[in-house]
Amino acid sequence: MTTWSLVAPLPRPGRWHRPLLIFAVAMVVLAVAATAAAVVDPREVTGAGAWLKPLKFAISGAFYTLTLAWIIGQVQRGRRIADRAGTWVAISLSVEIVLIFILAGLGQSSHFNITTPLHTAVWAVMAASITLVWIMTLLIAAAVIRDPGPDPARTLAARTAVILALIGLALGFLMTLPTPGQLDDFEGIVGAHAVGIPDGGPGLPLVGWSTVGGDLRIPHFIGMHALQVIPLALLALELLARCIPPLADPRIRLEVLTVVIITFSATLVTVTVQALLGQSIVQPSGGVLVAGIAIALGAGTAITIILFRKRTRRPDVAPVDSR
User: Which superkingdom, per the lineage (predicted)?
Assistant: First the structure.
């Protein structure tokens, strides 16, 4: 009997990058620890709970490294380079997260803080660590790009996820630039995530993104976590292929995934411009609002056309002998 294989198999668990997996598990443990610390420690740093930043970084780091471990598992050619780069990502992120937790325990700001020689040294080490993460992720991206996988959609997902994550990481460097206020009245802080307002103030629950001004953490976060969003979007398409007949065709999945990637990229550009304009994420206006509506309508229309235009097409998949 012959059946149709709709998707390529996932990489074997043993092929996932082990140091990154270990780091991800450690971040889960630290997230629990940070949550417990937040309950018993009421101190605040720059207007937020002292343990909120360690909690966010632990959760974000867990998702980032878990997905990167999976993406490295897709690599055949250039696997040795990708493995070594992944190990350095785990090491560099470990250095940064340890420093963040130590400064949180001291009730002091870990980012942008150069008030003393010690704080300057800590901030320099953190900056060097995240720069190394960016360079190593670039090497992983190069390995993924030059290594075509067995499934076109999965290959596209891995490639674009890493590239968009690189862009998201790079957007974080915008926060290291001194603000006009800091240049006029230096008080030991260089850099900020807020635009048009001082850091701190009212923000969204958990993430803390400003509700009254621009916030560069938003494009940084969205871009960096393309590493999860794009592969998860593909996984959703592969699961939906069981109940939506057009998606059983890998060519249609590839086209829908392309729309998702374009939509995500346009959203990243829009929220970056919004932050630089000093607009809050919850108060879009003008061109930003128009762009957001256009992106949503365009994505919905494109996906609808793809699904209905090719509904009568037979899935173009390789037969698998299941005897």
Answer: Bacteria
